[in-house]
Specification:
Blueprint (H helix, E strand, L loop, with lengths): L1 E2 L2 E2 L29 E6 L14 H10 L4 E3 L6 E3 L2 E6 L4 E6 L13 H12 L17 H4 L14 E5 L2 E5 L21 H5 L1 H6 L7 E7 L3 E6 L13 E6 L3 H10 L4 E2 L10 H5 L3 E13 L12 H10 L3 H9 L3 E3 L9 H4 L14 H10 L8 E6 L3 H18 L5 E6 L2 H9 L7 E2 L2 E2 L5 H9 L13 H11 L4 H18 L3 E12 L3 E2 L15 E2 L1
Parallel strand pairs: 3-12, 16-17
Antiparallel strand pairs: 1-2, 4-5, 6-7, 7-9, 8-9, 10-11, 11-12, 13-20, 14-18, 14-19, 14-20, 15-20, 21-22
Length: 542
């Protein structure tokens, strides 16, 4: 996603009046709301907060707070556990009967029913609604009719979805997919209330969900106030009165505010502060493994990067990057050089394969220069790595990567950084296909499956395939892996697909990223989940 990772997105219609409690007071522990409301650093999401239209981290944080789906990923292990699902039955990994628990409502009092899920998924899949996560419904029978690759849709709803009664619906997939139930904790599969459809504009201004928090107010560029929903029926009730997400365009400023008592939580400690963070915060600093990988992606819609020799140029660039030196000197034990395209968080049984990248991820200046020359040289004679500049960490590592490339190629102008002001602007340029060279492409897993590190990013037409890479061999292997009824047997086939990514260097893997955070003395029970997101509902204030 949440393409970090990636990183996983608000050219937003959200705008409501700033609540009276919205303005923080210097020295007031930073909550901006007092009481047991905590404040946390944040960035404006790219898109409106529709579950099927949010595929990046900042918007995903909010969806994780205001929605609960059929499954929820355990905040410690990442395992998919039943939340609204009472049971999910299947005899063939293609036809599923889903029964939801009784007693769940949305925060507006409306009952959550089977229709709440079916209507939401049909909306998300429909071509006319332009939802970025529509691809996630692609396994459901009838998707090709509601979201064709070309032309107009010929059906209004997915034929594979049927409401049986208030608590039961069936799902028929176009092919077997044994891991389908484990994907259902992703926000795109959340239920939606009738209010979403009856007054869509009002819902966008103030989203209504069924999670432990409700949106109180949002001012783009300033903050979003979320407050505890007292009537939340789930087992993971909020242990605080709310969270104020404060927008920062510079992580160093957020960190300074934390130290000054003007902010309670920073969930991405900037690289420039890593040398000081332990002495500044002591045991209030968190550094824990997360399902995040940082890569450099390429714009394959630009013919210069889609030539027959371009894969040699990409491999050469990969071998020109001294990952170990960069992670050791800049990131201080919060990053590990990547040797594949997944994450160690998956474990070997889950699909992580240390060393799969092979020599292409080893620093080798001589071979790097040779491959770039054999591939026809750098397009235009120079690569510009585009990144969002609202966090100092990105500037530091991009400069370091370019220095490494320049040294390896013997040309101090071979690589330069190309900053874009904000994350939202950066994502808009990517989704509008305005990249002309490599760009930052962090990926934060949506769910802990190897499939999630590969298919959304590299499958033809996938929701987060921002560079529009396409390879029939890769697609075929992914389809074969998904069709396995035994998930353990699917992993080796997914790894074969990953080898296709390697052979073409579809993206350059840089490093695996830990989750990092720092928090104020007002807070306790602060933790990051395997997705590197604070477990907000468990945090205590005071």
């Amino acid at each position: 996603m949440r393409g970090t990772t990636y990183a996983r997105r608000l050219a937003c219609a959200l705008a409501v009046a700033l609540a009276a409690t919205a303005c923080g007071v210097r020295g007031s522990a930073g909550s901006g709301a007092g009481g047991s409301v905590l404040s946390s650093s944040w960035g404006d999401p790219q898109n409106p907060l529709e579950p099927a239209n949010t595929n990046e981290v900042q918007g995903g944080k909010v969806l994780d707070m205001i929605f609960r789906g059929l499954k929820k990923y355990d905040p410690r292990t990442g395992a998919a556990k039943d939340m609204l699902a009472e049971k999910i039955d299947t005899a063939d990994s293609q036809n599923f009967t889903i029964t939801i628990k009784d007693g769940w409502t949305f925060s507006n009092g409306e009952k959550v029913t089977a229709k709440s899920f079916v209507d939401a998924w049909n909306y998300g899949a429909s071509l006319r609604n332009h939802q970025r996560n529509a691809y996630f419904y692609g396994y459901i029978q009838g998707y090709d009719k509601v979201h064709p690759q070309s032309g107009s849709q010929s059906a209004g709803t997915l034929s594979g979805l049927k409401v049986v009664d208030d608590r039961t619906f069936t799902v028929k997939l176009a092919q077997k997919f044994s891991s389908f139930p484990d994907t259902l904790g992703y926000p795109a599969f959340a239920p939606l209330p009738r209010a979403f459809f009856s007054d869509h504009a009002a819902w966008l201004e103030k989203p209504v969900g069924n999670g432990p928090y409700a949106v109180d107010s949002y001012v783009r560029g300033s903050q979003m106030a979320l407050r505890k929903w007292a009537g939340y029926p789930g087992p993971d009730k909020a242990r605080n009165d709310g969270v104020t997400l404060k927008v920062y365009t510079d992580n160093d400023t957020a960190y300074t505010d934390l130290l000054a008592g003007n902010l309670d939580l920073v969930d991405d400690v900037p690289a420039s502060q890593l040398k000081n963070v332990k002495s500044d915060l002591g045991d209030r600093y968190i550094n824990t493994p997360a399902g995040i990988i940082q890569t450099l992606a390429f714009p394959y819609y630009d013919k210069d990067w889609d030539t027959s020799g371009a894969e040699k140029v990409r491999k050469g660039l990969s071998m020109a990057i001294n990952r170990k030196q960069i992670t050791d000197t800049i990131f201080l034990n919060t990053r590990i050089p990547a040797t594949d395209w997944t994450s160690p968080v998956l474990g070997t049984e889950g699909g992580f394969k240390d060393g799969l990248c092979g020599a292409a991820c080893d620093y080798n200046p001589g071979e790097a220069k040779k491959l770039v020359q054999e591939g026809g040289g750098l397009p235009g004679g120079q690569v510009k790595i585009t990144y969002n500049a609202d966090t100092g960490s990105h500037r530091m590592w991009v400069d370091a990567v370019c220095n490494s490339i320049n040294n390896a190629l013997g040309n101090d102008k071979a690589c330069v950084g190309n900053p874009v002001g904000t994350f939202a602007d950066f994502r808009n340029r990517i989704t509008q296909h305005k990249m002309s060279g490599p760009f930052r492409a962090g990926w934060q897993m949506d769910y802990p499956l190897i499939q999630n590190f590969l298919q959304p990013l590299y499958y033809t037409g996938a929701s987060s395939n921002d560079g529009q890479w396409s390879n029939q061999d890769f697609d075929k292997l992914v389809d074969q892996a998904n069709a396995q009824t035994d998930t353990t047997k699917a992993v080796p086939t997914f790894q074969q697909a990953e080898e296709v990514v390697r052979d073409h260097m579809a993206a350059i893997p840089l490093w695996y990223q830990n989750g990092s955070a720092g928090y104020s003395e007002r807070l306790s029970d602060v933790a990051l989940n395997p997705f590197s997101v604070p477990v907000y509902n468990e945090i205590k204030v005071g």
